[in-house]
Amino acid sequence: MVNIEKLLPGAVIHVFGRTNGRDKLFYTEANYKYFLDKYKFHISPMVETLCYFLHINHFHFIIRVKEKTELDLDHHSFTKKQKTLISNSAPNDEPESIATVASQHFSNFLNGYAQAINKQEDRHGNLIQRPFKRKLLSDERYLRTCIMYIHSNPIKSKLDRNLESSRHSSYPELITSQPTWLDRDSLLLYFGGVENMITAHKEYLITR
């Protein structure tokens, strides 16, 4: 059983969830883009994202929750109440306040996406199982394994032939030097650079 970790500032967490029953999370290519756009609007103000993979019926993200000094409370995703909660929190209460607001942002993101899919597909009810799962990644070795597990999903599921051409995975973006919304620098530090990351992923695929 997976513990539902609080989204406390500074924590590195594997966030994942799936649809109810046999429902799809994505029906068209446009759905994948819309999902990530909604994620960037609601979630990126609260977290740095290290990696992700979007499957037809589930999703994976590894995130680091931002500290108060990293938050841009002027971002449109923050309500007046959320801004006040974080700004007025005493030092001892600050982590809990940030965790509460981060959870609200995830709820707004997932509920908003579900409503859009329900309208698109003329369906009703919950789309994604509640609560979405959160697992703390406090051990660096396990964190690296989790990153490689997430990136290997499209290959193991036979959705893509190789890591470099994965359509809905962060891997192709992370191995380039192009600008990215992902926290590439932090992720590469866990592997000791991009070449070591590529080698580790290839070895992981062979051994798994």
TrEMBL record:
InterPro entries: Transposase_17, Transposase_17_sf
MF terms (GO), sorted A to Z: DNA binding; transposase activity
GO annotation (BP), single: DNA transposition
Record organism: Cryomorpha ignava
SMART domains for this protein: Y1_Tnp
Name recorded for this polypeptide: Transposase IS200-like domain-containing protein
SUPFAM superfamilies per record: Transposase IS200-like (SSF143422)
Annotated Transposase IS200-like domain residues: 8-153
